[in-house]
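Researcher: Quick sanity check before group meeting.
Model: Go ahead. Protein one:
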Amino acid sequence: MKIQSIGISLIYILLGVMIFQAFLFGKNHLPLFAGGTEFEKESAQSQEEPLNKWSIPPFDGEKFRYSSLASLEQVRLLKEWAKAYGYERARQFLRDVYSDEPADDHELIHVIGEAAFLKLGYGAFNICDSFFKFGCYHGVVLEAIRQSGYNQKLLEELADGCLSLPHSGTTTTACIHGIGHAIMVVRGYDLIPSYEDCDRMSLDKLASFYCYDGVSMENVVRRHEREGALDQLYSEDPYYPCNSVPQQYEAACVREHIFHVRNNFGWKDVDKSAEYCLYFTAEDTLRECFGAMGSAINQDFSSEPKRVIEECNKLVTYDPTYRTLCTSTAATHYSFAQQSQQAEMLCNSLPDRIDREGCFGAVEYARASLF
């Protein structure tokens, strides 16, 4: 099925949540309510020096020592510091230590959002930014649920908070995407009711998609999974659960599930990944799936931009548009990582002038969203 020619606006639709796909497959999974016994037990195993042996801001040597700690211990210390010194100083400490924003410690910036919510309420959304891939918004959402409980009023307040944000459209979509993650966790990984809660926020179609996408990604990464959570991911059927969800959720489901298929079914070969995408026939699902392939390929070969180009180019045999979607989305990942030369290399590899312009537009949009 041939997708209509894509322009700049179509590439922009790919951007909002692709920012999260490269880093949410981190190595450490924390429980949602990190103050509980599970978290305390793991933290107690650390043999590092207690809080009163540290200072904020720390000396350079201490900064290095902090970054070398296990992730759980870093989170524990940062929670203590945010409580003792305030979220502002704790956040500045993170900026000093992690100017390169490492991919595996997304939970650290959650701590800042959580602490800010305790002081500012929903005003905490306004202090969040693109640092650590917009993860502060996730922290605000999670703390709001802890404090207020999960109900319709809370969903509406969270949606209003996201939609009232300044800055770029990516800020709003990153925020709404975080709500989707939180919904899935609170719902115990029950997929369809989680999608339906996104609908209850009365968002427009595009904003709803980003909430669905957050739900779908949490179903795959399961970073806050707890005992008793439903398993609507693992199956001998590679197309499950996306082949069983209502049509309005299919594109968001497929967009995230392709990562699971590539990693757990051994379908990293471009032809096998394309086979997965082409199982579905809806145009929006195909667009999201082949764009997500670009994210996955960038994730696998981020240090080899020429290899990324080669992998995306293989899709020409199916449809040149699929190559453009793959290449342009991969290029935005380089832009979010502030690797402008690699992003330009990918865009310049596209033979069609209109496709190149669309790719460069997407790359610039991603770059401008960092603040």
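Researcher: Fine. The other one?
Model: Protein two, sequence then structure:
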Amino acid sequence: MVMFSRRQEKRINFFIVFSTLLILIIVFAYFLRTKLSGSSRVRADILVVEGWLPPSEFRLVVNEFRKGSYKLIVTTGLKTTASYSEIYSNGSLAFKVRGKFNSDTASLAHNISVKAFSSMGEINSSHFNLSVNDSVIGSFYAGKSKKDYTAKWTGRLSGVDSISVNLLNYGIDSFWERKLFIRQIVIDNKVIIPYHDNSVYTFPAFDRTVRIDNKSESYAGFARQNLIALGIDSTRIIEVPAEKVRINRTLAGTIAFCNWLRSSSIEVTGINIVTIGVHAPRTLMTYRHLLHGKYRIGIIPLPDYRARNSVIYDTFRSLRELVEIAYYWIVLLFYP
């Protein structure tokens, strides 16, 4: 029979208690994730869409709107622009460069770089081509690290109409989505052209080719632009941007929506809100609190393809969301 000292027994007992608590927490969070991601639609006139949704999710929003009896879509989101443009669905991001060069240089040899990264790395890296006037000048595999990918090109800059980035291996599954993120292009380490206000994104969706001009000044505007491009009548989409804040972004978006609703003359009986995964309970709680039970409010959480195929990862995401729900419960006490 093995004998332990008193000190060793205390350590063993502590380890057993700690391990048991950790297992219970993980099991609780794992089942909590399923609960947090549940959908609860109501009969609604308005479909609220949180503008920070991944762009590829807007097709699901279009399906929801078309099969429902909604009068309007209201897009919400902060007044800000994303640092990187998302490329998905094997789309193409074309930079408008005509007029960006003051004059041709003496040399016809140029270096053209694109700053990019992928949502996945290693064997699942994003494969993309860099083209000038539709002619491929470089082919690359982008990993998860943000870096510059450079190709050499020979010609006169005055003859360049567009420089484009084409994603070649977009993929999506229950647990992942391979996307490419583009910030800017740089010519000869001198001319920097950011994607915002200087590019057009084109991608296939449904039975059409969708074209989006990257000019939105808010996530609400970005969502509206995507939905219009996907075929929704622009007169049935209202953009409600919120002021840019560092914290409590869900609260800021909800307050902006409530202010719009109070000032509008639209008769509303029910509201469904589209968001992502386990974020749904916090969003639903905030809307119900600020609207004081005047309307039926439902929630439609879309699949979170950014989640990894990992029970541990999903568990800790659920725990984090639970902490944030508790935090929001306290914050909302100051908004009677």
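Researcher: One line on it for the slide.
Model: The first helix runs from residue 6 to 36.
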